[in-house]
Hints:
alpha/beta; DUF6843; nine-stranded mixed β-sheet; 35% strand
Amino acid sequence: MQLKTTNFRKYKLLLIFTLISCGCTYWHKVNLKFLFPENYEGIVIIAWDEENGAEKVMEDDYEVYTIPKSGILKTKVPSRSLDPMDEKFYSYNDKTKRRTELEVIYLSSIGDTVRITKKNQYYQVGLMSSGHNQKGNLIFFLTRDIKSKFMDRAYREKYIAEHEEELYSTK
């Protein structure tokens, strides 16, 4: 009888631990909204945990990241999961403050056959998390050109390596 009770306690503790772990994972996922300058194409870097970075901005249940023309946004927000609950992408016009929702097509390689057919469609390639000075960053490329050199993974990695200091020194 003692053996059955011990096994039951082990399973009960395992179940409780699993439920707590799953619950914590769920609650740490966030909704993200990215705003890009109108007609922007190029590298996008969000540098998390930056002392002189932008404060956290919220709209409804979304964390909002307004990407400047340089493509590099420094933020005080702690590093984020790359698996958000929901993501939305918009272009914005500085003068009119008008936003246009973008339809982002995630490409895994140049071999993908999905083609842009609308003005508000873009390809997102190279989604990755990278470290710089022991801090995490979100890096990807946004383009409308299926033949962009940024479609090539080796080129993207070489580009980042060659321009790292320049990219991260932008204010």
